[in-house]
Amino acid sequence: MVMTGEGVSYGTQIHDIAQLDPDGTAIYFIPLEGDDRLVSWRELDEVSTSLAHVLQHRGVKVDDIVAVSLKNSPEHLISCFAIWKVGAVPVPMRWDLPEWERSRVLATMEPVLVIDDPESDLFVEAASASTEPLADVTPPRGWGVCSSGSTGTPKVVMIKTPGLYFLGSPSNLVVETYGPLPQPQRFLVPAPLYHTNGFTATKNLMAGDAIVLLEKFNAAQILDVIERYRVTGFIAATPMLQRLVQVPGIEERDLSSLDWVQQGASPLPIWLGKKWCELVGPEKFYLSYGASEMHGLVTCRGDEWLEHLGTLGRGFTETELRIIDNEGNVLGAGEVGGIYMRTPTGPAGTYIGDNVAPMPQTDDGFVTVGDLGWLDEEGFLFMADRRVDMIVTGAANVFPAEVESALSEHPEILDVVVIGLKDPEWGRRVHAIVQPADHAMPPSTEDVIGFAKERLAPYKVPKTVEFVVSLPRSEAMKLNRAALIAERDGPDEERGPT
């Protein structure tokens, strides 16, 4: 749905779409079990308005923070739009956190209310509350993102730009830089809504695009859903893309409805990027690299990526890139250092809380979140790893992402994470934790090490291998490396608490 004009509040935009297409489907909700649930634009607007009346009655005011701790569901999205309609700020958070960790996150964000039960009295009251639109108000801040970083210390990134939707905004800014997309789009959401990739669904709804929302990532189910609902595009983290290509017979599935597939959130192994370029075509495959702090963005399309294998891309629109060493020196092409970005307006995100250090920043406004990489002669960025994840073994630096990328090609390995463990000889030894594709017939330790030796320099090859039933990835497919290390050799003073 293409409209033009000035910025309007998020709540007004959803209301206006509902007036134009009340009976059209806004949300196709796909549970792990049971029948799909369809939510119309009218229902999305009216139920979020009713809930907004309840929130207002409960004392929620403009710029208040409201935590949303719900599974992927229509109620999660309805809650966010209800919060926006009273001018408050939604902060999605993991619904399954242990109480100790949950209390730390809530103490950091200090919400006035937590929405954590789709059957709570909030929703019961909303069922009989008014559907009359509230007075239009623009939230002074957009939303919040919960992040524990690599150390496990809770952080909440607050997007400080106001909650305004600019009419005519593209469905996918990255993809539409290369050309317009057919409208409207039908956007698949395989990621949890508390993750930036998943929360993008709210922007797609405001663009008038229907979304296909999964309760939880399931690779085989996703392929069925793409075919059933003729999905036009989706954003996925690298582990999700890997799980999808491991579904037997994916080459025979009908992916013709896809206009684009966008990778984000972690480095992409070369073999996996090539596979997706084969599946959908390089002109439909996109890569993006950024952070919750929104300090800049790096992107490229599949055809560019194939010409610069392994790249993350170049600075998107007005994002400038620099590689800087620990002494503050700007490095040349091919030299590894900290990845710094600068945009004309600076980072859109800022940390809240008293105990979070600000992002490192140069005097002229270049900001880093701690990732390491290098630029080639044409300005394409390549990732080395996160500084905090780098393993110093002997006198050499090993980047886990590179080792994981090599091992992920092994046909008998479903998932792998590489960490550094204390070692009396090496300081830290490279240790691979492997999830076999078939638990009944896992590869041997010798096979894994031999596979690595064929692809990596000797000092990068894992010295030890551990096999597990499954890796403890979150719904966003993230791992807490610090916790994995602490479980095996105790807390690391350099990393802090887990």
TrEMBL record:
It holds the Pfam family AMP-binding_C. SUPFAM superfamilies: Acetyl-CoA synthetase-like (SSF56801). InterPro entries: AMP-bd_C, AMP-bd_C_sf, AMP-dep_synth/lig_dom, ANL_N_sf, ATP-dep_AMP-bd_enzyme. Residues 402-476 form the AMP-binding enzyme C-terminal domain. One of its GO terms (molecular function) is acid-thiol ligase activity. Residues 18-116, 147-345 form the AMP-dependent synthetase/ligase domain. This is Unannotated protein.
